[in-house]
Amino acid sequence: MKSFFSRLKEIWSRLSWLDIACSAIVALGLLVGLLGINGKVSSFLEFLAVVAGIYLVVRFVGWWRSRLLWSLRNRLIVAYLFIAVVPILSFFILVVLAARILYSQLGAYLLYEDIHQRIEMIADIAQHIAIAHRTLPASINENESERILAEQSHAVHDGELPNLEIEFSSDLSLLQKLASQGKNSFAGLLQEGDSVSEPLSLISLRMIGDSKEPRVVVLRVPVTPAFLRTIAPDLGVIQLNLMENYEGTGPPGVLYSSGDKKYRVAERIVASNRTLQPAVFWLDSPVNVVSRLDSVYVAKDGTVDLARPLLAVSNARPSRLNARIFASLGELRNTYVILFVLVVIIFLLIEAVAWTTGIVLTRRITRAVADLYKATQFVKTGDLSHRIPVERPDQLGVLAESFNDMTGSIDKLIEERDKHQRLENEISIAREVQNQLFPSTLPSVPGVEIQAICKAARSVSGDYYDFIQLSPTHVAIAIADISGKGISAALLMASLQAALRSQALTEGSESLSTAELVARLNKHLVRNTGDDRFATFFIAVYDSATRTLRYTNAGHLPSFLICNGSSHLLDKGGMVLGVLEDYSYEQGVLLVAPDSLLIGYSDGLVEPENVYGEEFGIARLREAAIRLQSAKPLMVAESLMAAAEEWAGTPEQADDMTIIVTRLR
């Protein structure tokens, strides 16, 4: 344990000159405040003391945070807080917000439903009047019948619809403006621009069809503060905001956008003698309700806006809305409340048990981590013999065992790393050797231009190509695909290259049949390689003096000779090399036309697939080569390689890609 003075000395050593200065300013400010000294200097000093105090608080919080979180135990406790407490608080806040949104929507629905019930009521009254008008005796004149029907409707509905107005008119212009095409009635909210005292009303218009002349019955209930007092009793204060078009002139007030139009509040109708109900308990905070009602606006000049918004603003207590929701439960409502309280208590008990369990587990974890930290210090010094004691058969015990196994296997890992490095060196050497196997110079034969490209799928390619000048007028062109990839394929390729050159560079090889040459190579591979190793092979010998092309194809994809927009597949030969020792191959002979193009390739160039699983294929390769017939061999090779890669749409290669392009002038 450190003494008090040693701790004080340690804290003092960590203070900067700014910390010391701010501490002195705070002390002076406190002294001035205690002594009650007044004046400009003392006021300025007190201001500096406040600023310095804020700085010191920030510094102390940072220091305390670093000290607190250095220990893994404290970090785990903080982690538990964020894992257990923060999500619960976040979920609780989310539930509260969702509940307030739902309460708001419920309040808006109650207001909307009550108003539309009144609209449906006056629409039903208008329909009943129209039906009753047809059933009255013919002895009663029209005016008398209309008066009787109006009085009957007032007697029945004045209690539910205060200030109900019933009129009969021969003017059908308003009905024609408001009713949909083919309809003889309308019911809804109506704003009238020429009415000052009653700008908003519930209205129903219906045509009386059996009259001698067309007439319409009009029922109207003015929306007044007294009317608003009677609707939606579960809500508190209700206010309807009548909107008008806002053209960008005058004070905007509260703007409301609907579609491409903007509106502002023109007039407000507030329910009279309505207040928010008292809270039942402390969580019963009011919710605000804002909803839109659609109305029809008729201007002074007779123009009609069939979708003029009307904003309804109100508030409500959640307790009143809950009572409305659970009214159908009756006496069972208290049972549900008790069950909810019990669930909350059980939840709190589970949370307390979880906290206790977390603290216990934290102690066990931190003890295991401390043991692991000590062991790492031994490893740091180079002592790999230290072992961590394993006390429990749990994951922490497995961690200790894993650390012990790790320290015991470090030497093996180092040895494996050295082996891997040696293997990488060997692969690099194999790649360099393989590059030496490919021809470094092009043959000098009159009228012959050769270019080749080989892209390996791995560090070492399994494809092989070669150009061998047999005489001043003879050149041999070979391409092969060795089974497998990597070093083993490269070794087989080296064996094939050595055998080919030993046969081709002997005297008189230009007159040797390509079929005989391939048969000798086949025997060499069968006798010197395993049963699972083979190679596809194609060789062609061109005589520029006689323009004769002799070739043999040993299981390789057929090369093709292109001339004047057509192509000829070179597919005569036989099976792959390295399978049957005494196999007889066939030689093909062609007379080459001037300016022909000989193209050989490996399967890696035609097998790339696009996103639909379609291969590039020989046909597409041949068509692309025909289009490029007049280009230089290097350009043809690069273009065909690019076409295959573009078809695959990915830079990764599944196989080695090789192409040889020979121009035969």
What would you say this structure looks like, in words?
The chain is of the alpha+beta class. It folds into four domains: 15-70; 97-322, no CATH class; 332-378 and 385-408, no CATH class; 429-664, PPM-type phosphatase domain (Phosphatase 2c, domain 1, 4-Layer Sandwich). Helix content is 47%, strand content 22%. The protein contains 15 helices and 20 strands. It has helices spanning 4-14, 17-35, 40-70, 72-135, 142-157, 173-178, 225-228, 318-325, 332-380, 395-408, 410-437, 486-504, 514-528, 617-627, 633-648, and strands at residues 165-169, 185-192, 200-208, 215-222, 238-245, 255-258, 261-270, 287-298, 304-316, 448-455, 463-471, 474-482, 535-543, 548-554, 559-563, 566-570, 573-574, 588-591, 596-601, 657-664. The strands form three sheets. The chain has a nine-stranded mixed β-sheet with strand order 1-4-3-2-8-9-5-7-6. Strands 11, 12, 13, 14, 17 and 18 form a six-stranded mixed β-sheet that branches. A hairpin with a 5-residue loop joins strand 8 and strand 9 (304-316). Helix 9 (332-380) runs parallel beside helix 10 (395-408) and helix 11 (410-437) runs parallel beside helix 12 (486-504). The two termini are 96 Å apart. 26% of the residues are buried.
